[in-house]
Amino acid sequence: MLYEEVLANARTCVGEICKACPVCNGKACGSKIPGPGAKGTGTVAIRNYNKWQEIFVNMDTICENKPVDTSLNLFGRTFKAPIFAAPIGAMKLHYGDKYDDLEYNDILVSACADAGIAAFTGDGTNPAVMEAATKAIGKKDGTGIPTVKPWDINTLKEKLALIKECGSFAVAMDIDAAGLPFLKNLTPPAGSKSVKDLKEIVDAAGVPFVVKGVMTVKGALKAKEANASAIVVSNHGGRVLDQCPATAEVLEEIADAVGDHMKIFVDGGIRSGVDVFKALALGADAVLIGRPFVTAVYGGAAEGVKVYTAKLISELEDAMAMCGAHSLEEITRDMVR
Fold it and tell me: Is 300 annotated as a binding residue?
């Protein structure tokens, strides 16, 4: 199966709002929720994509001619590339009736693990979503990162117990989900966390903890204070707050501030292996990609994920070779402008 076939197949079964565009840049879905768009104007998702395109790579082939190694060592695991599938939920609401959250996560976790990477799985108000996600991760020897919403502490402890049982190598919280409409007015309340709250959750996790949704140096320092092992520089795909900067605009300063103390991931509009290269050059250790993995699953199930992942890795390998970097450690800030 070719990637173009994956896209064509996806267009026959995704919902009315997602168009499975050749380039997922946020323009077609815009401000449409339900759907993969934003609760606001949708301009932040578009800005996320555009800002990566404004960064250029510095080609330099006057270097040793040898194979490129894209492998990443993270929290005791080795992955084929510094690429992870981002957590996405409410599949039928946002993307169409072909898959529910349980089916989507089951396909994604297994396919990503088989492709040599890992998936972050989503969460929802239905407890079965986390139960199924952790079961899928357990079947793949813990190769996946369950992502919890910022629930109340008792709900979180219930979910963390499931996560411990599955043996996942890390756990995440998309704390930026505090801005999602469905988390409003819940009982018990869900939403933003203080440093003290977050530290309690990190300590309860028992495995490396990833805080997703950091957009400032101040926020990164607070995550560090809470003993997080990693952060994801993320504005929730531009879905939760208008007038945010793009992730590409804040990554470098955040990496400079805390990169020596924790792992740095970034998401938001990253769509190619060249974009991955740019993110690594600006200080990220790895990237998360969301909506295009949905297209891959809807368009080709496990084979779609395999095809899309291979495409990203091939593009990253080529960018590294053409810029004189033969391992992730050799990617430096001066390779982009």
Answer: no
The H or E element that residue 264 is part of is strand 263-266
Can you tell me the distance from the alpha carbon of 1 to that of 305, in angstroms, rounded to the nearest whole number?
11
User: In sequence order, what are the residues at sequence separation of 6 or more whose Cβ sits closer than 8 angstroms to the Cβ of residue 65?
Assistant: none
b/e burial code for range 237-269 (CB count within 10 A of at least 16 → b): bbbbbeebebbbbbbbebbebbbeebbbbbbbb
> Element (H or E) spanning 269, and its range?
none
Determine whether the annotation assigns residue 254 to a binding site. no
DSSP state of 83: E
Reduced to 3 states (helix: H, G, I; strand: E, B; else coil), residue 63 is coil
Give pLDDT tens digits for 8-26: 999 999 988 899 999 999 9
One-letter amino acid of 258: V
Please confirm whether the linkage preceding 188 is cis (ω < 30° from 0).
yes
Separation of alpha carbons 315 and 118, rounded Å: 18
Question: At 211, phi and psi to the nearest 5?
Answer: -100, 115
Structure token pair of residue 52:
């990566």
Strand 77-79 and strand 72-74: pairing? Answer: antiparallel
pLDDT tens track for 44-76: 999 999 999 999 999 999 999 999 999 999 999
Annotated binding residue at 290? yes
First-to-last alpha carbon distance for the chain, in angstroms, is: 35
Are 52 and 248 a contacting pair, CB within 8 Å?
A: yes
94 is in an annotated binding site: no
CA 261 to chain CA centroid, Å, is 20
Q: Residue 329: which residues within 8 A CB-CB, separation 6 or more?
A: none
Establish whether 337 is an annotated binding residue.
Answer: no
Q: Is 238 annotated as a binding residue?
A: no
The CATH homologous superfamily to which domain 3-328 belongs is Aldolase class I (3.20.20.70)
pTM metric for this prediction: 0.96
Structure tokens at 208: 């490396």
236 is catalytic: yes
